[in-house]
Amino acid sequence: MKQTHLTLLLGTSFALALAGCSNAKESLGLNRSAPDEFMVVKHAPLSMPPDYNLVPPAPGAPRPQEQSTNVAAKKTIFGTDAPGAANTAPSNAEELLLQQAGTAQANPDIRRVVDQETAELKDRNKTVADKVLGLEGDKPSASIVNAKQESQRLQANQAEGKPVTEGETPTIEE
Q1: How would residue 155 be classed by pLDDT, with cut points 50, 70 and 90?
Q2: Alpha-carbon distance 98 to 83, whole Å?
Q3: Is 108 among the domain residues?
Q4: Is residue 116 part of a domain?
Q5: In this structure, is residue 172 part of a structural domain?
Q6: Buried/exposed code over 83-116 (b: 16+ C-beta within 10 A; e: otherwise)
Q7: Is residue 53 part of a domain?
Q8: Backbone dihedral region of 29: left (phi > 0), alpha (psi from -120 to 50 degrees) or beta?
Q9: Calpha distance 13→19 (Å, rounded)
């Protein structure tokens, strides 16, 4: 009687301990994992081979009739194997549109012009704080203090009974 109670108690405590473990179901193979809906792979349809003297497929090698996902995506988006793959001459309507848009008179040096205009706008559109306080983004905001001369100035001010703020702070010019 004691033996059955002990076995039952031991089995129940083992089951409770095992249920508390998060990896127990996974370790025992009881956890089902759903397929990743974003990793669905489309295989090319099966077809009869044109020749029955085919080489058997190599294990792990890609299927010869399937495209890579990049090529399939480009074909889906652009309608051809790759963007710009079709070298067809523009139609009369396309030529007329390009002519009316003025593409023949386009400035080939447009990047330099845009960069120059942007730099001018940056200088013109300074904030009020930059204009009033004289803050410059390109220059360092602090000056370098000459420690030896500053120490001498402070000692002289202290000896004469002057406040520490009196006098000009010596700086190092670069």
Answers
A1: very high
A2: 20
A3: no
A4: no
A5: yes
A6: eeeeeeeeeeeeeeeeeeeeeeeeeeeeeeeeee
A7: no
A8: left
A9: 10
Provide the β-strand partners of residue 135.
Answer: none
Helix, strand and coil in the chain, % to nearest 5: 45, 0, 50
Q: pTM of this prediction?
A: 0.24
**Which residue from 7, 31, 6, 35 is spatially nearest to 21, judged by alpha carbons?**
31
Nearest to 25 by CA among 35, 37, 33: 33
Helices and strands per DSSP (H, E), number in the chain: 7, 2
Q: Amino acid identity of 108?
A: P
Cα distance between residue 23 and residue 17, in whole Å: 12
Each residue of 106-138: pLDDT tens digit? 888 999 999 998 888 877 777 777 777 766 655
Bridge-partner residues for 145, per DSSP?
171
**Interatomic CA distance for residues 118 and 124, integer angstroms:** 10
